[in-house]
Amino acid sequence: MIASVLVLGFAGAGVLGLLLSRWAAAARMLATGAAGFLAIVAAGSMVRAQRPETFGWVVPGFDLGAFAVPLDLGTSRPTAAVAFVVALVACGVQVYSTWYLRDDDRYPVFAATVSLFTAAMLLVVHSRDLVLTLIGWEVMGWCSYLLIGHWSRRASARRAAYKAFLVTRIADIGFVLGTVGLAAGAGSTALTRVIAAWGEPTVCDEYAACTGPDAVLRNVVVTLLVLGVLGKSAQIPFQDWLPDAMEGPTPASALIHAATMVAAGTVVLAGLFPMLAQAQVARWVLGVSTALTMLVAALLAMGQSDLKRLLAWSTVSQVAIMLSALASAGPADGPDAGLFHLWSHAIFKSLLFLAIGLLGVIAGGTTAVLLRGIGMRSRLGRWAFLIGLLSLAGVPFLVGGLSKEHVIAEVYAGAAEGGPGVLVLLALLLTVVVTAAYSTRAYLVIGELIDVDQPVEAVAALPAARRARRAEHLDPHGRGNANAVLLVLAVLSLVGGLALVLELFDLPGLSWTWTVITVLLIAVGAGLAFALGRAGDPGVRFVGRRAALWDSGFGADTAYRALVRPVERLARVVAFLDTEVIDGYVRGGAVAARLAGLAGERFHRRERVRLGPWLVVAGLIIVLAVGVLGWR
Known about the structure:
Blueprint: H1 2-19, H2 21-49, E1 53-57, E2 62-63, E3 68-69, E4 72-76, H3 77-100, H4 107-126, H5 130-148, H6 155-186, H7 191-198, E5 203-204, E6 210-211, H8 215-232, H9 241-244, H10 250-258, H11 264-271, H12 273-276, H13 280-302, H14 307-328, H15 336-363, H16 368-371, H17 379-393, H18 399-416, H19 421-446, H20 454-460, H21 464-473, H22 480-495, H23 512-532, H24 538-543, H25 547-551, H26 556-631
Antiparallel strand pairs: 1-4, 2-3, 5-6
């Protein structure tokens, strides 16, 4: 029942935001606050009663004979924790947006879309039915398209929205086919029946007589599902759409990167984990993709000339880390290490995006040149950004450090059991070093004391309208909402690890060995950044003259265009044949019929006086002849 209220509350707030813009803000704040409160209540009640899960529904399901669609919702301790952090981030984004977008003429549409986006994510979190999962999955894709393209008057925003929509839709072909295959094999869309049908191990004797699900078919359908998750989560080879999504407003970026969209794949695979753990091919596909993505994305983050895009590539890398825990964990370990990293990532990544939004407004942009030393002008922005970066780097005892250490321990345990664990572990340890390096670089840029006046000179070159908007946002009396959100998220980034005390996630104890190793790796990465930063921006020295290559994501967009170009040419040929050849025959037939009609009309008008009586007589003769012949 609580899950139903969460989903319907956010959906209703979204609709109300469109219909009643005057009361939209109050409705959205009430929906987000109530959702977070109900999530806490649900988690607390299950902890006290020691219940693993509760079930409910939005609308009654239906039975199609041999096939059942129950449309169940459910809540467990991990999903209640995830629902809480989704509601928390959504509430923070809504409050923050009242300041950030206060002069935006399309703000009511933006805020309503955020509410609908949140409802779709909560539907995925609480779904215990593949149909509901698919509905929430696709609604999120549509909402992300709207939010990325919110400033649609800009061509770059429109292109980024198109790109995100098309890339994720292509990947969703695999997701839909995998969902259909799972439901068909189970005879139901209920997750419990799907896991029962596909989650058991396949055992074969010496005579090749096997019991359990078909291993080959299971690998096929689960791999298709994984491909859909890779697209939504911006993993290789679908990684390039997410950094381009920075064309949307910063609050939208915080929501997409922290608590919705890219995190949804982790939730879906966690719900189907018993089945994923038995599909070795799917685990290898997921493991290889996440291992490559986490390291490549971290390297790209290090060299970005725009700090907002640095955070975008860090999201790609961090999502790979949470998915790698699912790819490497053994069947008996469970998916909670990945879900805990999702939980912590939502807190510190939303903090980072909203902090960079504040600093970017003060500086007039988010490029490293404009942000150089800007932290000296906003104490709260500087400290919030620092706390978020420390958590991102994985410093022990912060929320990000605790979750990352659990992922490392989980991957190490999985590596001992075989599968992709060894590859993932190696990539993960290297990623810890690079993450510490680009996190240190980001803080050195905004906290640099040398040449502090450079951003002011750059701001002077901005258009007059943009300078006026910047001055308006610098008003400290209008920034209270944003400051309050940053303060709450900063505190949670420091003490959010207390979620482990509440036993919301089923995790083993931490290993001090891995804690020491993590500290050493972080020190290496930070030391590398300081060494590169002795003469300026570490990122500039890291990439040298290849900054354009880094900013283009190693040419991924060029590769997309190269792949699309043959299809585009073929489409033009098909369009020519359709319009000029096939349609030509149709148009020719229409022209011939029209000409024949005109000729007949002229002939009739010219000859009707002379031929009319004779035609009537001829018709009567024919009728009489037919009647006589028929009578005989």
